[in-house]
Amino acid sequence: AVPKIFSSGLDITEMCGKSTEHYAEFWRAVQEMWLRLYGSNMVTVAAVNGSSPAGGCLVALSCDYRIMVENPKFSIGLNEAQLGIVAPFWFKDTFVNVVGHRVAERCLQLGSLLPAPEAHRFGLVDELVPEEKLQEKAAAVMAQWLALPDHARQLTKSMMRKVVLDRLVAHREDDIENFIRFISKESIQKSLRMYMEMLKKKKS
What we know:
Pathway: Lipid metabolism; fatty acid beta-oxidation
Structural class: mainly alpha
Strand content: 5-15%
CATH topology: 2-enoyl-CoA Hydratase, Chain A, domain 1
Helix content: 55-70%
Distance between the termini: 20 Å
Number of domains: 1
GO molecular function: delta(3)-delta(2)-enoyl-CoA isomerase activity
Number of strands: 6
Order of helices and strands: HEEHEEHHEHEHHHH
Catalytic activity: (3Z)-octenoyl-CoA = (2E)-octenoyl-CoA; (3Z)-dodecenoyl-CoA = (2E)-dodecenoyl-CoA; (3Z)-decenoyl-CoA = (2E)-decenoyl-CoA; a (3E)-enoyl-CoA = a 4-saturated (2E)-enoyl-CoA
CATH class: Alpha Beta
EC number: 5.3.3.8
Largest sheet: 3 strands, parallel
CATH superfamily: 2-enoyl-CoA Hydratase, Chain A, domain 1
Number of helices: 9
Protein name: Enoyl-CoA delta isomerase 1, mitochondrial
Strand order of the largest sheet: 1-3-6
């Protein structure tokens, strides 16, 4: 609902100053979102109408195809490192599967937010279009994918994504514990508070 933003990612206020029970519930919900979207047998097309950092980038990465507005002011990427956070292994795996190991390694270490043209060059998004053409193009791509025999497409998608999905399912509780342990550290809480202060100053 916010112009120029596809998704601004996870709500940082949910990760700051809360109980361990809250963190566990929150992280389980994030896992569930990804498992459902990345594992969906439906055709999913991300119409990226603006900037898409961190969790927003994960949503786009989890789709079958990504179309972004060709505006260099809009950026996309897993910028967790800038907040002092480490992207979880399943964020990383999803990213590697889209852009390749070297680009993913560099971008994750730097917490890079790539402007739309650069994101396209690295394969993070599949296509760039003028803003007024975004929905039309997304519908056309969707129609192209839906024209295929659905059973074959679904089985192929499942085959391609199964290893990554299974890895989180097998280590789901460990991943939640790691998140709680990490996010509860005072140094991480301090980084998040500083980041939220910075965002408040930007708004004002």
